[in-house]
Amino acid sequence: MTGLADRQAALVRALVAAGEPPEGFDRDALGTASKALLRKRSGGAGEPGALPAPARRRLFGLLSLRRN
Prior knowledge:
By secondary structure, the protein is mostly helical. The protein is built from three helices and no strands. The radius of gyration is 13 Å and the shape is globular. It starts with a helix and ends with a helix.
């Protein structure tokens, strides 16, 4: 990968299209985020228990780290 756009595209593929995780990203974290995004896309994110509590905590922890 060369440019920022290429790296962003690889990240999107890893999150929503079962692509290979880009270098430097935690596979487990991407897997958790991917499951949440795919459930959201399918309309299941608002259902009780759609994402188990440990996965939810991990996902929101990762999201808060990315903002800083």
